[in-house]
């Protein structure tokens, strides 16, 4: 029976280019999606650009442009970047799209109707000159810790995080007028109502969610979750569907994570599949949420609570695929430090498949890692050229040269067939559990086994002594190559499509490829080139 699979990649924020940290965090989602599609399951793989929030509005003011222009610029850039690395989203959306905004307003209304939204008056900084309430980022002043220049969020000098209430000598960042305190009304989400729901969820995910997700979530739950503001004093965002809140927008932490649901429903509507039935099928539904560790609590606390507040039948996250950090020279990547490497520069320098394979095999699946161009080059030369490429090329080139590219049908070694069939089961269970690095290592071991099998059986000698034995060896090696193309497809789709075309193989499915008949090699080419 086909399974219903929802895979959500974290929505990158539209204020800077995508770098290798984003790639390491988001790439597992594409591998998982491609795997489930090979199984014939109902896969919905979605993401999109996070377009709203204070940072974009502040930047727009400083650059004398509009938030829409900034968000549109990065949204287009992100789409091209994901395309260059062969991400296979069923829908890459954006929070500024009308379809998303309208659905979020419906969800917000449902949460309110269910009794989980309430009004509260709070003290907030106000600029009498601009005649508007200010967000933390729109306030400048003196750091209470070191006396340095600071915003309402962070000190520019000692870099400490600041509670805006403690900031001294506060002024409006836009006009430098001294701020005053005024009462302002906001809507709040009753997050505290879901403490037990979240505790039960985490308890049920021991050994299923990644350890960093479990540990970070437990830390917040042990402190006790508290209610959070659901509205924000902004002009750019999703309108609040409540009378009297025309000057505010829905807080981005609510509307951005709900993008998984708005995008999923849009995909299913186009397929004429009932959304509610899809995401509430307890026997048949699994979800994966793929992101970096700095986004854990949004996916393990905020998102499940919102789902429960909307509809108690919604199934909460099945798997949390939360990566650690990619560092440069043991430092977290930072625009100000200039130690960012973008998606686009990686693909330009090394190619999509090399980057994808390296980032899965050497990515931050369980611990922080240091990125090194030299390591990537060595990985390409040792494993992609030296193991996978070498095995395929030495087999096919020999036949191409000696037999005009005709691989005669032979008997496939039964022990190799047994090993191959077993490998599909092992790799499948690892991918479904989010253990992608181990899954890929298993496949690379299979390719290395192919090289050893070729060497041990010496087809270059058998071709002179026993042509039937040569055909059996060559056909068995071609069988390994054909199955490598299926096993590796979720990880390196371009290279696997090249193998498929060279051998005129059937379409990819997650099942042992059992060769039949003679095979004609066409358009033989190297999958990977050595990088010096």
What would the keywords be for this entry?
19 strands; alpha/beta; 16% strand; four-stranded antiparallel β-sheet; five-stranded parallel β-sheet; 532 residues
Beta-strand share of residues: 15-25%
Distance between the termini: 49 Å
Q: What is the rounded Rg?
A: 27 Å
Count of separate DSSP helical elements: 18
| Strand neighbour order, sheet with most strands | 3-2-1-13-14
Annotation, overall tally of beta strands: 19
Helix content: 40-55%
Q: Give the overall shape.
A: elongated
Quick summary:
The protein has 532 residues and is of the alpha/beta class.
Task: Provide an overview of this structure.
By secondary structure, the chain is of the alpha/beta class. 47% of the residues lie in helices and 16% in strands. It contains 18 helices and 19 strands. It has helices at 20-38, 54-62, 67-84, 98-113, 195-204, 211-223, 252-257, 259-270, 275-279, 296-310, 343-350, 352-361, 373-402, 414-432, 436-457, 459-465, 467-488, 493-503, and strands at 4-9, 42-49, 91-94, 117-127, 132-133, 139-142, 149-151, 168-172, 180-189, 228-229, 231-232, 249-250, 285-292, 319-323, 326-328, 331-332, 369-370, 406-407, 519-520. The strands form six sheets. Strands 3-2-1-13-14 form a five-stranded parallel β-sheet, sandwiched between helices. Strand 15 (326-328) and strand 16 form a beta hairpin. Helix 14 (414-432) packs antiparallel against helix 15 and helix 15 (436-457) runs antiparallel to helix 17. The longest helix is centred in the last third of the chain and has 30 residues, at 373-402. It is elongated. The mean pLDDT is 94.
